[in-house]
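Exercise 7. Given the encoded structure of a 190-residue chain, write a plausible sequence.
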């Protein structure tokens, strides 16, 4: 005859560890419990302290990178500004020439109104008008070219300034977090 089989359940490693923990907690007594809790607290604090120190180191490295990026942007601004200054300076005489040519055009228009009857005078005045128009167009072409170059530099300066503002915001955020970490570390004796 066959014997009835009895099944024994083999506890898993996790279940066994949990049962051991329950046994230890039940038998440790008040002094053991106080020591264990103090040890667990100390281990937890050490873990927190270690994490804070690691985060602090990472943030300090990030702050160095941010400072390097800020310096690059500042140097780029100086370079761009030094590129833009002579362009703006050379624009001044062109604008002055343009104003002078416009004045000449006005004088020619007045002269045309007066010399309507004499064909030779009218022809000479018309020739002067064409020459002045040609000079005005050449001056405008130079002015537009310079204004375009200045505009491109200004666009780059604006993009550079926007990036700089982002870097400043990141620096501020990192500094605030670093201050929090330093404050928290002081609580844990670090």
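Solution.
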């Amino acid at each position: 005859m066959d014997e009835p089989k009895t099944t024994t359940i083999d506890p898993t490693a996790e279940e066994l560890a949990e049962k051991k923990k329950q046994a230890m907690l039940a038998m440790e007594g008040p002094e053991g419990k106080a020591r264990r809790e103090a040890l667990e607290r100390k281990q937890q604090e050490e873990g927190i302290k270690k994490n804070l120190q690691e985060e602090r180191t990472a943030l300090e490295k990030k702050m160095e990178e941010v400072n390097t990026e800020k310096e690059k942007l500042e140097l780029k601004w100086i370079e761009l500004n030094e590129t833009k200054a002579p362009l703006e300076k050379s624009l001044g005489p062109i604008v002055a020439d343009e104003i002078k040519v416009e004045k000449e055009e006005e004088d020619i228009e007045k002269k045309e109104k007066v010399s309507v009857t004499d064909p030779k005078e009218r022809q000479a005045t018309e020739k002067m008008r064409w020459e002045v128009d040609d000079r005005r167009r050449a001056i405008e072409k130079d002015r537009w070219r310079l204004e375009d170059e200045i505009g491109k530099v200004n666009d780059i300066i604006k993009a550079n300034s926007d990036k700089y503002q982002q870097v400043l915001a990141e620096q501020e955020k990192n500094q605030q977090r670093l201050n929090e970490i330093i404050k928290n570390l002081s609580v844990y004796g670090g």
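Remark. The chain has three helices and no strands. Students should compare their own answers with the one above.
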